[in-house]
Amino acid sequence: MCTYSEEFRAMLDRLEAEDNEESKLAVADMEEDGCCHWRKRRMKMDQIRALEESFEADNKLEPNRKLKIAEELGLEPRQVAIWFQNRRARCKTKQLEKDYDHLEASYEALKRRFHSLEQERTALLAQFKDLEAKVEARRSAGELVATPDNLPFVSSDGYRRLESQAMSMDDWNILIGEGSSHF
Predict the structure, then answer these.
(1) 104-140 pLDDT, tens per residue?
(2) What is the average per-residue pLDDT within 13-39?
(3) Going by C-beta distance under 8 Å and a sequence separation of 6 or more, which residues neighbour residue 183?
(4) Measured distance between the N- and C-terminal CA atoms of the chain, rounded to whole angstroms
């Protein structure tokens, strides 16, 4: 069920004030050709409040209930049916707006997380390339004899992969010939 915001209640109060200023009975304006044009009859605030209470109790309108409400409020059954239909449409629109806001917030959070992971990936790749350059420098200086077959992060097809069984920093330092874990 939908509940009413302060903004909606303020609108109802403004309409009630207008009710006091205008006549709420249907008025026929006779034109020169003798035709009658009826203005839309505005509901009174007590009618609207009663309809709102009834809507909060159950937003579906059975034919017997529609007739009972119309009789109690002095409205046509068609007016009651249309009011309920419009109110359900407003409620659905509000729910769609809330759902959209929630999805948008989730999307923004995921986008921030993606960019954070992307930055982390870039930093790790830079660190990997730096380590790879150090290994290559030691290899070319003859200090390290390593082949793709004896490095645990190089697959059998020759492609480098960081796997869950990657070496610890101490193992790496031993492999490249340094005694401490600091570069």
Answers:
(1) 999 999 999 999 999 999 999 999 999 999 888 888 8
(2) 49
(3) 131, 134
(4) 63
Radius of gyration in angstroms for the set of CA atoms belonging to the chain, rounded to a whole number: 37
The tokens describing 79, both together, are: 């007016």
Identify the pLDDT of residue 168.
Answer: 60
How far is the C-alpha of 88 from the C-alpha of 40, rounded, in Å?
21
The structure tokens listed for 133 are 């350059």
Instruction: Report whether 138 contacts 144 (CB < 8 A).
Output: yes
Distance CA 83, CA 92 (A): 14
Q: What is the pTM of this model?
A: 0.48
Distance between CA atoms of residues 147 and 153, nearest Å? 11
Q: Where are the beta strands (DSSP E) in 31-152?
A: 36-38
- Alpha carbons 160 and 130: distance in angstroms, whole number: 14
CA–CA separation, 87 and 43 (whole Å):
14
Which is it for strands 36-38 and 28-30: parallel, antiparallel or unpaired?
A: antiparallel
Q: What are phi and psi of 73, to 5 degrees?
A: -100, -5
Asked if 1 and 56 touch (Cβ cutoff 8 Å), the reply is: yes
